Structure formats: C-alpha cells, structure tokens
Amino acid sequence: VPGLASHPIGSWKAPSHQDVWLRDYLPQDIPGIRVLLYGYDSSLLGSNSKDSIEDLGRRFLESVKAIRKDTNVSSGYSA
C-alpha cells in the first residue's frame, strides 16, 4: 500500500527503470496471481476533497466489483 500523495505505478518501480515490481516480478514468484493497481487522490496539501475513508473504501470496492465482472481485463499496464 503506497503512502499519501503517491502514484499507483511510481510507488512500485525504480525511478531509473520501467519495470514495475508488482507487474513484472511478483507473478514469477506466485504463478497465477492477479495483480490490480488502484490509484486515488491521496494528496493532503491544497486538497479540497470532502471524501471520508468510508467514501474511498466504498469507491474502491465498487471498482473491484466492476473489474471482477469484466472478462476483458487487461493483462498488463504500460507505465
């Protein structure tokens, strides 16, 4: 889980490479794993967001449900 004001891809890759650890290496260690990267605005400074943690959690669960229903989920993400 990345920290506040982080990026869903940047949190898992080295600054000098395009390899994303979760996408490019974890499946080699755990065959058949399904990796999902989920990003949301977690910046605090200058934020006008009124979302509660419950709002963010609900939105996350709705996104996961939608992904699970979609049979055309992408097998990769290009950074």
What's this, in brief?
The chain is an all-alpha fold and 79 residues long.
Secondary structure elements and their pairing?
Blueprint: H1 21-24, H2 26-29, H3 53-69
Description:
The protein is mainly alpha-helical and 79 residues long. The protein has three helices and no strands. The longest helix is centred in the C-terminal third of the chain and has 17 residues, at 53-69. The radius of gyration is 15 Å and the shape is flat.
CA radius of gyration: 15 Å
Question: What share of residues is helical?
Answer: 25-40%
The profile of the biggest β sheet is: none
- Could you give the distance between the termini? 18 Å
Structural class assignment: mainly alpha
Report the strand count.
0
Q: pLDDT average, as an integer?
A: 76
- Helices, by number, come to 3
Q: So what's the overall shape? A: flat
Q: SSE string, helix = H, strand = E?
A: HHH
Task: Estimate the strand proportion.
Answer: under 5%
Uncertain parts: none
Task: List its traits.
3 helices; 79 residues; 0% strand; mainly alpha
